[in-house]
Specification:
mainly alpha, 86% helix, flat
């Protein structure tokens, strides 16, 4: 019994650390955002302010994503570990991450360097089209894999056992 409570304490300690870190990062991001908006944003065109906001979101996602991903990998159950061994899953996850980060970097570059001579509607069109392209790429990549590895039979077995 003591061994189980020690494992539970370690798990809660890791979770508590991740939650505390997340709260600090989000509060720090909000402080940055407020300071930027009230003291620095007026010195830049709205397009560059969008670029700064997107860069801050990218850094926020990295700061939160890395520790939570590490924690999730440590807490995987057997089925989740087996998922990583399925053919095509691992590279699709990595390509998805790279594509999403790439579109955000492209949008940061667009809004910082290129967007100024265009209207707000044209810039909004670039923003929307970029995410349509990413959505189409990710759908085309994941749909065949999802159709080959249909989780429905597993769900049906679980429902029958209840």
């Amino acid at each position: 019994m003591g061994e189980k409570s020690d494992a539970s304490k370690n798990e809660m300690k890791g979770l508590a650390w991740s939650m505390s870190f997340s709260i600090l990062v989000v509060v720090g991001w909000l402080v940055f955002l407020v300071l930027w908006l009230f003291f620095y944003a007026k010195n830049y065109a709205w397009e560059r302010n969008i670029a700064v906001f997107l860069l801050s979101v990218l850094l926020l996602a990295a700061a939160l994503g890395i520790p939570w991903t590490y924690w999730a990998f440590k807490k995987q159950n057997t089925a989740e570990k087996e998922m990583w061994k399925l053919r095509g899953f691992r590279w699709r996850v990595w390509v998805s991450i790279i594509v999403i980060v790439s579109v955000i970097i492209f949008l940061i570059y667009w809004f910082w360097m290129i967007a100024e001579p265009y209207s707000i509607y044209q810039n909004l069109a670039i923003f929307i089209v970029a995410f349509f392209i990413v959505g189409g790429l990710l759908t085309a990549m994941w749909l065949p894999w999802g159709m080959m590895h249909n989780p429905k039979p597993h769900c049906d077995e679980q429902l029958k056992s209840k």
